[in-house]
Amino acid sequence: MASGIGDAETLTTLHQAGRLDDLEISDWINNTAVGAGLFDNPNTFIELRSPNVTSYTYSYDNPVAADKQLYLDTRSGPYSFASQTSVFWRYAQHDDGSVTGLQGTIDSSGYSDFTDEHTITLNIYGTSGLKSVGRVVLDENFIAKPTDNVYYSDPQDAADIAAFIRELFDALPSEGSEGAGLTPLNIAQNATVEEISAYVTTMSDYAKGSVNHWSSSCRLESCVDGEAKVVGMDNLYVVDGSIVPPLTVNPQMGIMIAAERASEFILGAWSA
Questions:
Q1: Residue 164: which domain range?
Q2: β-strands 119-126, 5-6: how paired?
Q3: Which residues form the Glucose-methanol-choline oxidoreductase C-terminal domain (predicted)?
Q4: Structure-derived torsion over alpha carbons of residues 33, 27, 226, 137, reported in degrees to the nearest 10
């Protein structure tokens, strides 16, 4: 936005603060798409405990000697993969035909206040099809930040995630079952969908959003054209997560694909 490209209100604020380097108002490019549609995956950590579970905490500074040697000798053992030991998905179907993707992962250790040797972490994400987006704005020091409504501005997203968690709680083995049970520690196992929804939409160490998969605030065909060139400019390109639409949990592959294609356009423009 300090380039003179963005929505008129923000550009006016920057101009009045002397932040546009004497750029003439007539040279501004008023584009309300700059900063709009900001997306990140909401996530919720659920701590699960069982006396029959032994957690494993990764320590790259001081790993278990035998596990360190396994990796060094044969590239095997726990340090040859990420700590997420299981991944699973579900899709929520809506009456309007839209679909929301939901994902769960199991981490081999507990988190924050729940880190004893019998605790693991269930991490629930909203992935594809979510409707909640926010915007990039500037704070009082003109530093970019997200608006507060990035997560759960559309209540359907919270309802889908809460229903998914409720379904998982219903499927957890009980204490009397074979292999002992798994007990949620930071959300009551008998919590209603409404109570779970209230929990996941309230910011805490365990809920709302902490994955930093930011994307989509300078999207193709609105902020940049199909070749990643900024609309209204001849030689300014944006090639990062902001140009891609919301993807799934981790936008890394989508960003890499967009960057590779954009680099072809940029090289082609310079060699023409």
A1: 42-210
A2: unpaired
A3: 132-259
A4: -30
